């Protein structure tokens, strides 16, 4: 009987973890203007350095992103991308790092 009760509990836990993983803001950095060239997705909590500065897309899905003009989120945050709205810029960006607030 315990085995029967355990299976639904495990299934519910997997569903909860999967649903939680889908809720993550993402900063997509592109090498070129107009979302061209190589790209990288930054979605980890905390500090990430931005390797490309040609353009970007932000998908705000629960966490905000503090943007810095220096690597490693040093200095004062220059701008904050919203946790509940998307944003994009088709032209070069000066931001060197992001701190995703989780």
From TrEMBL:
This chain's source organism reads: Nonomuraea jiangxiensis
User: Quick one: signal sequence residues?
Assistant: 1-24
Instruction: Specify the protein name.
Output: MiAMP1 protein
**Which keywords belong to this entry?**
Signal
User: Known Gene3D superfamilies for this protein?
Assistant: 2.60.20.30
One GO term under biological process is: defense response
């Amino acid at each position: 009987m315990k085995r029967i009760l355990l299976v639904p509990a495990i299934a519910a836990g997997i569903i909860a973890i999967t649903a939680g993983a889908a809720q993550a803001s993402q900063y997509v950095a592109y090498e070129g203007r107009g979302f061209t060239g190589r790209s990288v997705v930054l979605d980890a909590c905390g500090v990430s350095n931005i390797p490309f500065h040609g353009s970007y897309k932000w998908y705000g899905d629960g966490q905000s992103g503090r943007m810095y003009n220096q690597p490693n989120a040093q200095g004062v945050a220059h701008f904050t991308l919203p946790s509940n709205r998307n944003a994009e810029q088709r032209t070069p960006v000066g931001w060197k790092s992001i701190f995703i607030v989780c």
